[in-house]
Specification:
This protein has a domain of 191 residues. It is elongated. Strands 1, 2, 3, 4, 5, 6, 7, 8, 9 and 10 form a ten-stranded mixed sheet that branches. 19% of the residues are buried. With 467 residues, it is α+β, with helices and mostly antiparallel strands. It is built from nine helices and ten strands. Keywords: Coiled coil.
Length: 467
């Protein structure tokens, strides 16, 4: 079971047990919860797959619970006897033997949910009248108090926390219903009245010895008094006013001491097409065990000899075909064509029923698979974006560090260059001063500035005076 990310929506699909305290029944259902936190939408759907009697197909029947019909909802991590009977735990599809290992989502509805059924169905009833799961689901659709039992082992990852968030949003927020394209799956929305009265209201028949059982001698099902017209009441009373004689052959087998009661025999109604197919199957089964000569004899005696092949007739009878062979061949072709057309119609009808059932069954599986793959792709896409962002941030940090390092090196080079320039300026000034001094010192001195020889030295005073 797949769930999408919380930012883009979440979906939960589980096989659970639903129990209604209102009718004290439970059944296995497929649970689907959809929650889009950004769009403030949510939905709860319960579904079963059943063999329907009208039309004769295998299809899903769903109960959609919009958020606006939920009056109160509570989620319990561990169940107890106050939520549901402990004996129900053995019916759970997850094979749980302890009630404390099951979580319960309790729903109180202000109004019944939406029943989704095949568009061809005028009413819903099971092909097997003993289908207890279908009868229980019919009462679940009618009930306004539901308990959804989910085993702890069915939760994967953070599914329970997300279910808890959905329950809180369903209780405190005004969620909108998630729109679904039911027409694509050939399903129409309705309510619990789509179930036939024999399914939605299981009423035990009265004992055979009660007085009002005498009204059943016509061999028809007893109707409610408010649904019978007055004229029909009078007519039925008039018919029942003349009971059978006490010495009737049917009275001896009647367990009631009342002389006005006779046993009622009910026969199951069979459609003409089904009866014809059953008869055809019986004939095929009987003819399959007969030899060829007996079958030829049967065809000839039943005035169907024109259906025999030329080669078969020649092998069976040592004579040629009659002179009107072309007419016989034409009649044979027409007869065979009728049988072929009939078989084609029967096969086409059966094929359509199979295709309709398989289409509605596999549409949901394909839709679930597509949603699961879309969720996986979204998760992979989000992971890829996160990886790209992380890698980009790492590269940006490295680039910033390299740029800072280069700036520091440039500043150090600049400072070093300034120091070198200052040193070179000092050296240049020193060299210039030296050259100037050397040039001044190397220039010719005046005559009065020459030094006299040691033999002609004058005194200090004399030199000063001369200068």
């Amino acid at each position: 079971m797949a769930t999408t990310s919380q930012s883009r929506g979440w979906e939960l699909n589980k096989e659970v047990l639903v129990y209604t305290p209102e009718y004290k029944v439970s059944c296995h259902v497929g649970l689907r919860i959809v929650h889009d936190n950004n769009a403030h939408r949510g939905s709860i759907t319960l579904s079963i797959t059943a063999d329907l009697a009208n039309p004769r197909i295998t299809s899903q029947v769903r109960l959609n619970i919009p958020p606006d019909r939920v009056k109160n909802c509570e989620l319990y991590w561990s169940s107890n006897d106050s939520l549901c009977p402990s004996g129900l735990i053995i019916e759970h599809p997850a094979s749980i033997n302890n009630l404390s290992l099951v979580s319960t989502l309790r729903l109180e509805l202000g109004e019944g949910g939406i029943v989704l059924c095949p568009s061809k169905a005028k009413y819903l009833s099971p092909a097997d009248t003993n289908d207890t799961n279908f009868h229980a689901f019919a009462k679940v659709c009618r009930s306004q108090s539901l308990c959804l039992l989910i085993a702890h082992r069915q939760f994967a990852g953070a599914e329970y926390d997300r279910l808890k968030n959905f329950t809180s949003a369903l209780q405190n927020e005004r969620l909108q219903n998630v729109p679904f394209d039911h027409a694509r799956q050939n399903m129409v929305p309705t309510d619990w009245h789509i179930f036939s009265s024999s399914v939605s209201e299981q009423v035990d028949p009265p004992p055979y010895c009660e007085k009002h059982v005498s009204q059943e001698v016509l061999g028809t099902r007893r109707r409610a008094s408010n649904s019978m017209p007055c004229g029909n009441k009078r007519r039925r009373t008039h018919v029942l006013s003349s009971p059978q004689p006490v010495d009737s052959s049917t009275e001896a087998a009647t367990p009631s001491p009342s002389p006005s009661i006779c046993p009622t025999y009910f026969t199951r109604a069979v459609s003409p097409g089904r009866a014809e197919r059953n008869r055809f199957a019986c004939l095929v089964h009987e003819l399959r065990s007969l030899p060829d000569d007996v079958i030829r004899k049967l065809l000839n005696e039943s005035e169907h000899g024109h259906l025999l092949d030329k080669r078969s007739i020649r092998e069976a009878v040592d004579s040629d075909l009659p002179s009107e062979s072309e007419k016989v061949e034409l009649i044979k072709r027409r007869g065979l064509k009728g049988y072929v057309d009939k078989i084609k119609r029967d096969i086409s009808q059966v094929f359509d029923e199979i295709i309709d059932g398989a289409e509605s069954k596999f549409d949901d599986r394909i839709s679930d698979q597509c949603n699961m793959h879309i969720a996986e792709l979204r998760e992979e896409f989000d992971d890829g974006i996160s990886e790209v962002r992380n890698t980009t941030n790492e590269y940006l940090k490295e680039i910033e560090e390299a740029a800072q390092k280069c700036v520091h090196e440039i500043e150090e080079r600049k400072d070093q260059c300034m120091i070198d320039i200052q040193h070179q300026g000092i050296d240049v000034e020193t060299s210039v001063e030296r050259r100037l001094k050397h040039r001044f010192n190397a220039s010719p001195r005046p005559l009065f500035d020459r030094k006299p020889s040691p033999s002609h030295e004058l005194g200090t005073d004399a030199r000063r005076s001369s200068i």
